[in-house]
TrEMBL record, chain B:
The keyword Kinase does not apply. The gene is pqqD. InterPro entries: PQQD, PqqD_bac, PqqD_sf. GO terms for molecular function: quinone binding. This is PqqA binding protein. Functions as a PqqA binding protein and presents PqqA to PqqE, in the pyrroloquinoline quinone (PQQ) biosynthetic pathway. It comes from Salinarimonas soli. It comes from the Bacteria. It holds the Pfam family PqqD. Gene3D superfamilies: Coenzyme PQQ synthesis protein D (PqqD).
């Protein structure tokens, strides 16, 4: 089902 | 570059930015130099259509044909997502 797409920046250390 | 993304823009991933399926997470990730983004299934569908030949409008058309959702809703969500990625410099247009 369509839902607002989620893009989360990961913490890369 | 500072203007908002439009429907006639043809987005593409810049050199060094890749869409990958992360087996450990069981989800797609967008990998950029020194940065990575977790994508949910819908975001992965959107980015899977970003190939440097489709316009934003064509991407929305493809998604509207696949999902049972009002095209205007899909368009708003896709433009917002791609515009955000362009501002973060992980999408060229």
């Amino acid at each position: 089902k369509w839902a607002k797409p989620s893009v989360q920046e990961m913490c890369v250390g | 570059m500072s203007e908002a993304l439009t429907l006639t823009d043809v987005p593409r991933l810049p050199r060094g930015v890749r869409l990958r399926f992360d087996e450990v997470r069981g989800a797609h990730v967008l990998l950029a130099p020194e940065r990575a983004f977790d994508l949910d299934a819908v975001a992965a569908e959107v980015l899977g259509l970003v190939d440097g030949t489709r316009s934003v409008s064509a991407i929305v058309d493809a998604l509207a044909a696949k999902f049972d959702e009002d095209r205007a809703v899909i368009e708003g969500d896709v433009v917002a997502m791609l515009d955000d990625l362009a501002k973060k410099r992980v999408l060229d247009r």
